[in-house]
Write a structure and sequence with these properties.
TIM Barrel; globular
């Protein structure tokens, strides 16, 4: 499969014109340079880095400095930052701008991980409205001409929603777009995303694009979200795990939507899946500089790539322990490369889901939307490198 021909730009985020209104959601341990390059080979859009902790970037830790690197082929360098202190976040943005390391910066306010929310970070942070506003305003100012965007969730739970107020604050601060994962922190990744919240946010925010996130498993899902909610674009996360060709489907789906024609979705046989898996591994070797570490990293992708395919439990298990490219080639060579696409068995949800849970929060966090002195100590510990969206 090759990259599809794209229509005229259809989404403007500040000075950035996107060929298709699609953004790759940051996912820790997934959306590194290798995976972004692979997805770009199939489609188009804005491909965002793994979440980078602002404090770690300011302290220039080796890991953070490696993660903010982009391959020369990445024409739009997009980085997502996470932070809880306005000064630290602004300093991190300043570094990215002053050292010409990014063309787009996104702020994460959607992390539902208990280790983060129990310290007041992630999806818990917008509840403290002044702190949220200070972080966004400081980051926008530090970004200057670089478009700065925000990604958030509906709120902490259904009784403590923050997305409309936070959306208005972000728009007022001058962000270039706002993305909403239509779940609360309590939802985690379970159940169905509440697309009606995206509709409400779009009706509330009129000055900048609103992007929807949650349950985009196919090109048809993306079209349906935009038609039902009126949002300006979609953010794709778990739907592309083990299926980077989804970005080709999205290109075709939006081109068909524009022209009023039908389109065909990708239906890769085992041979194409095997070739894509190997290409992913090659890109990881280039990124990590180690065949051993690349093979360790690719292991978590095996079940996603072969979801629904009959590859045999022994080969599947062995690929999950692969140690070299030669071993991978030997195992892939044992597959029937002509085995056709399995249809519905390969479709639908993938990746972590979990179940609804009571969010872990600092003591008495919900008693007030103002940040008191008692909670400032919690925030100093909240900048941990966890995925969230």
């Amino acid at each position: 499969m090759t990259a599809s021909t794209t229509p005229a730009p259809s989404l403007q985020i500040g000075p950035l014109a996107l060929d298709v209104p699609v953004v790759l959601a940051p996912m820790a341990g997934i959306t590194n340079t290798a995976f972004r390059r692979l997805c770009r080979e199939f489609g188009a859009g804005l491909y965002v880095s793994e979440m980078i902790t602002s404090r770690a970037l300011v302290e220039r830790t080796p890991t953070s400095m490696r993660l903010i690197q982009h391959h020369e082929s990445e024409s739009t360098r997009s980085i997502q930052l996470y932070g809880v202190d306005p000064k630290t976040v602004a300093e991190a943005v300043t570094i990215l701008v002053a050292e010409d390391r990014a063309d787009h910066i996104d702020l994460n306010f959607g992390c539902p991980v208990p280790k983060v929310t129990r310290k007041g970070g992630g999806a818990a942070l917008p509840w403290k409205r002044e702190l949220f506003r200070d972080i966004v305003e400081g980051a926008v100012k530090a970004a200057g001409n670089i478009p700065l965007t925000v990604k958030m969730r509906k709120g902490i739970d259904e009784d403590h929603l923050t997305y409309l107020e936070a959306g208005r604050a972000a728009e007022g601060a001058g962000v270039a777009s706002i993305a909403l994962h239509a779940r609360t922190a309590a939802d985690y990744y379970s159940g169905q995303a509440d697309w009606s919240a995206i509709t409400k946010l779009k009706e509330t925010i009129t000055g900048v694009p609103v992007l929807g996130n949650g349950d985009i498993w196919s090109g048809a899902d993306a079209i349906r979200m935009m038609d039902e909610t009126g949002c300006d674009g979609v953010v794709v996360g778990r739907g592309c795990l083990g299926r980077p060709w989804l970005f080709g489907d999205l290109v075709n789906a939006f081109a068909a939507r524009k022209s009023g024609r039908d389109y065909e979705t990708a239906q890769p046989d085992v041979g194409i899946v095997a070739q894509t898996l190997r290409r992913h591994t090659e890109l990881l070797i280039e990124f990590l500089g180690s065949e051993e570490w690349a093979c360790r990293d690719i292991r978590k992708h095996i079940s996603w790539y072969f979801k629904g395919y009959s590859v045999g439990s022994d080969i599947r298990a062995s690929l999950g322990l692969v140690e070299s490219l030669q071993q991978m080639d030997d195992l892939l060579g044992r597959l029937d490369w002509t085995q056709p696409y399995p249809g519905d068995a390969a479709e639908g949800p993938r990746g972590r889901a979990g179940s609804p849970k009571r969010p872990a929060l600092p003591d008495k966090w919900l008693e007030s939307q103002e940040l008191g002195d008692a909670h400032r100590a919690h925030l100093a510990e909240a900048e941990l490198s966890h995925s969230g969206g």
